[in-house]
UniProtKB/TrEMBL annotation:
UniProt protein name: dTDP-4-amino-4,6-dideoxygalactose transaminase
Listed InterPro entries: DegT/StrS_aminotransferase (IPR000653), PyrdxlP-dep_Trfase (IPR015424), PyrdxlP-dep_Trfase_major (IPR015421), PyrdxlP-dep_Trfase_small (IPR015422)
Stated family: Belongs to the DegT/DnrJ/EryC1 family.
Matching NCBIfam families: PRK11706.1 (NF008687)
First-level EC class: transferase
UniProt GO MF annotations: dTDP-4-amino-4,6-dideoxygalactose transaminase activity
Residues making up the signal peptide according to the UniProt record: none
Gene3D superfamilies: Aspartate Aminotransferase, domain 1 (3.90.1150.10), Type I PLP-dependent aspartate aminotransferase-like (Major domain) (3.40.640.10)
EC number: 2.6.1.59
Amino acid sequence: MPETTGGSSPIPFSRTYIYGNEIDFIQKTIETGRLSGPGPQSEACERQIRETVSAPWAAVVPSCTAALEMAALLIGLAPGDEVIMPSFTFVSTATSVVLRGAIPVFADIDPVTLNLCPDAAAAAITPRTKAIFVVHYAGVVADMDRLGKLATEHGLAIVEDAAQAYGAKRGGRPAGSYGAAAGFSFHGTKNIGAGEGGALVVNDPALVERAAILRDKGTDRGKFLRGEVDAYSWQDVGSSQIVSELTAAFLHAQLLQADAIRSERLALWQGYQDALREAEGAGHFTLPHPPADAEHNGHIFFLMLPDASARRDLSAHLARNGITASPHYVPLHTAPAGRRFGRTSGSLTMTDRAGECLLRLPLWNGLGDDLHRVTGAVLSWCADRRAAA
Ligand SMILES: Cc1ncc(COP(=O)(O)O)c(C=O)c1O
């Protein structure tokens, strides 16, 4: 059926917003005549990230995927090691581990936060477990008190996949500050976006020097640039995980607006909550309910529908109204490569449910009053369902 938008413009699922000095910073960077990184723009981003995360070391890298791959190398994952992680996550959480020959062990998620369930993680530990890769879904920091305790008790490393969690905290402590290392994403769909981009944060001081070398083709070029050695040379394995100063300039401008970006998103997130609470009470879906001590960043607003057919139906209804809503992950344990490279631990009931029933509503800076068009369309679907029942 052709989509109708009632004469209004379509509402995309996500959109990168120009929030401050992006164009100005890019212009000034071009004028310096030096676009390769790392340079002053990357360094400014890194200062900002270190401050936000309270971390000793951060590097701007091309993606969160790159950051996770570096983290997997840094914690010394080796073939046959097992890494516990959620299956309801993006592929990079698992591919970063699989690239080292390690085995993702998928454990179920908590029904409220959709983050790795500490009990399921505990049950997944074997003598071969080396690490836990924790995801902070929707910018809600996972239960790091319990997961951290579990890791300490069993001598496991923690890596945070904080792709969605820049600027989020739990109990006052920032996402990205818990693990030996953490990855953030600045992909265009994230709260702070540079088209493509990410950051690696390293909290374990013993890993910092090696992180800088891995990032820069296995060399100690950083020391050379700081005047600490006369020439730089090949020191270790490595790759080129550096971004252009043009990307860093855009990112820098966005990072400077991080608080304003988060406040606007939280207001939109709350707008959805307020408008849809009654429909939740009537049983049409459930809304997100982050724990009271989670200071999330408004990255995602999702509805959990009663079943896959209701999700399909609502999604089609929104599309007819010119609104793009989006499911999220196909659980990794059900995907061809997930079955080939990983294994499950226990039942993944909540993971399967999130894979089938979760629908994300448009949420981006600049959405503004169009939020009411979205909630209006959701509520008209609820009314149709009530009438048909
Ligand atoms: C949980 C999670 N991890 C990793 C990534 C990958 O981020 P990037 O695109 O920056 O590599 C994403 C991207 O959506 C994500 O949601």
